[in-house]
Amino acid sequence: MSPAAKNRELDLSGFPPGTISEYTTHVCLACIFDIFTKQLGLAPRTAYSEIKRHAPTIEEMTEAAAQRPYFDSDEKNPHCPYCNAAKRWHARFDTYRIEGGKLTDAQRRALIKSLPKSDDQFITAEKKSTRRAVFFEWLDTLGRSLNFDDDAWLIEAARAFMERREPKTDWAQTFDGVRAVRRSQRIEEGWERDRDRLFLAPALYNDVLLVQYLVSRSHQHGGRTFEGRLTLIELVRRMRYGGYLESQGITERDQFEILEKLVEHLTGGDEAVKLHYIVDRRDFLEKVKTVYARYAA
After folding, report:
1. How confident is residue 64, by pLDDT bands cut at 50, 70 and 90?
2. What is the CB neighbour count within 10 angstroms for residue 81?
3. Is 101 left (phi over 0), alpha (psi -120 to 50) or beta?
4. What backbone phi and psi angles, to 5 degrees, belong to 243?
5. Segment 228-253 mean pLDDT
6. For the chain, which has fewer Cβ within 10 Å, the N-terminal or C-terminal residue?
7. pTM, whole model, 2 decimals?
8. What is the full DSSP assignment across 156-210?
9. Which residue segment(s) compose the domain that 259 sits in?
């Protein structure tokens, strides 16, 4: 990322970890200008006026796989997948999703108030969801960021979950230098650190196992956890014999019903949550102006 792009990033460092999701989507302005000028027959100036007012929907900005005219790319010098235009014809939208709640509402309002208002450089939107849906969106994002070929992902997943579960704790410091995470035989709640090992209370440790299972599971081979690769039957058996199911009031016998109850406990189920989105259009507005200059020349 260029220094200019870094300088324009929003400062979200004050928000608790796990409450922010970031999305980046690209759009090819060569494609867009061609549609307006060649297919619709508009003059470049008219096309420019129409295009710069474009406000993408939240769904378009946050889809797992971008749909035309948008596209995803991690390449340094990408080409448009639709017309092969070079990077100089591309614009970027950065979208930030903030989970509503007591921990974020005041800071979110202050952030939005501080944003420039001219030319709709930033647009905001709200969306209602459930704790369960938000959790699985977070889990999907987490899964795409982990390297499952390196066992270090197990500790990374544990830390990510703890950051989401207890956002006020400095988990970066807590996990610094941790080489192993274990189930504690001494404490009933919380966690404790012993040199390079982190010990979690039994219930908390089981929550971590469930997250690891969910983020890495496959239909044939189960999921990988601190306790090795576990099928759903093995995971349920471990939690039943350890007293975890009983402690959560889970009395079902069918493994899939048990998994459903475990997920409900872990995520908060259908409890309502409000999601707040901020879409950064600054790069888009700059690039539209640049591309218009080429068409008008």
Report:
1. confident
2. 15
3. left
4. 85, 5
5. 92
6. C
7. 0.82
8. HHHHHHHHHHSTTS-HHHHHTT--EEEE-SS-SSSEEEETTEEEE-HHHHHHHHH
9. 134-267
